[in-house]
Amino acid sequence: MNPIDTQSLMLQMRSLAAQAEAKPVADVTETAKSGQDQVANFADLLAESVQSVNREQHKSGDMKKAFEQGDLDIELSEVMLQAQKASLSFQAMTEVRNKLVEAYKTVINMPM
């Protein structure tokens, strides 16, 4: 496999961070057509996110297993990087779940 280009990786991370900060909330709400579409889009987004985390976890496990079996195409640094990606994506998903549960409890406990 190719060695990891840390400079390129950092540039990609900075680019994604800039994109995440640059999108105002008003633009997000304007793109939604109706309340039902928002719920469907949110459910699709949530399902897609869980599947993405699952893919990262499986990819990490596969790379670890291949490295342990002596595959010469996989370097230790790649295995460690993928393991960290999988760990971070899982932690992020857990935090999102916790916030959703907290928001649900808040809405349920609101007086009518």
Description:
- By secondary structure, this protein is mainly α.
- It has one domain (6-108).
- Helix content is 81%, strand content 0%.
- The protein contains four helices and no strands.
- The protein has helices at 6-22, 25-31, 35-68, 76-108.
- Helix 3 packs antiparallel against helix 4 (76-108).
- It is elongated and about 65 Å long.
- The chain starts with 5 loop residues before the first helix and ends with a helix.
- The mean pLDDT is 80.
- It comes from Thiomicrorhabdus lithotrophica.
- Pfam families: FliE.
- Keywords: Bacterial flagellum, Cell projection, Cilium, Flagellum.
In terms of topology, how is this protein built?
Elements: H1 6-22, H2 25-31, H3 35-68, H4 76-108
Helix pairs in contact: 3-4
